[in-house]
Amino acid sequence: MGDILQAIGFVGTALGIFGFFKTNLPSNAPNGAVVRIKVGNQDYDGQNYGGGIARVIGYDQQNRIVGNAYEKKISNGDFQDITLDQDTDGIQSKYIGIIATGDAICISWITLKNRDGASDSAWIGDVGKSCGQDWAWGNQEAGYVEDTGERISPSCTWLDADHTNDIISGAMKINFSSYADNLDDAISSGRACSATSFSDNAGEIDGAPGKKRDVSLRPRRPESMTKRIIISTVNPAHNATELCNHPTSHSSDVVGSDGYYCNMETRELHPLCSSLKVDGCVSIDIESGKVQKRTSLGKRTANVHYRSYEKVSERVAIRNPSLQVQDFGAEMHTADHEIFYSSRDQPSNVKRELQACCTAGFVDA
Fold this sequence. Notes:
365 residues; Lipoxygenase-1; mainly beta; 2 domains; 6-stranded antiparallel beta sheet; disordered C terminus; 25 strands
């Protein structure tokens, strides 16, 4: 327990409690509370998860402002420790307000450390996902489930002040004390959602966090997202069916570990023909970025063009990061192909994952 604290995030398919790495907490500052904001990692410079924070606000137990920080920029996959400018350095912040700029940002987690040593706590992007906010796969490891050792990479929650990409919220306010202890009760009572307020306005949220905001809007995607497909078959949490069916997910089209492809524009799911040869299944050519769909034409079947992508981002797991892409035949030529490595599986598993998902050139489906 010494190296972790408990936090609320998705464990399996529902909110639960996991061990959050204390290394994700900021250090004490000589003046004021410190807020660490961690951004998700999309691995694609043309449409990344980094963005701007216009203002961070600390509030005391009576919801009075005790400190501020202004104009922060956080890069894709990075974090920033933000020290609040306080008149009295040791006053605890109970509530933290985050106001975004017009440069959209996807936040994987936020942690708070008060100067006087009050209880540390963490807000996880999975809370936003569970509570009606726009979200995407965060791809940053935060901790693990203590009973099973399963690693947790939470979703990230989107904020955007000008709603350029129809992201619904521009600001949020968190009651950090609700995420510090009694977490089982927070989940069962609904406090995991009610302890965070969201606003579509790019300004301060006056009241303390209260009832969960009802959100029914489905965001449209920027053009850069429509030109890219994400293939992630090695992370069990990257479930294309869940992402596709969730009302507030916001992502490029994906192939997930469940063996399905999702068209995020239409929210249509298609099985991969490599695993399920049925009418409507799809085959993906990783060289050209083209997708074909199996279609019945009278008594015969045909593979017809369905979609094309300029960018193919593929997540594979290997033990030896020096292994080159061409060693297992996944180098891109026409489409721009990006391969991202983790360190959990043998290279043979990588080849098997690639063959199970997609092909270098179409094969008979």
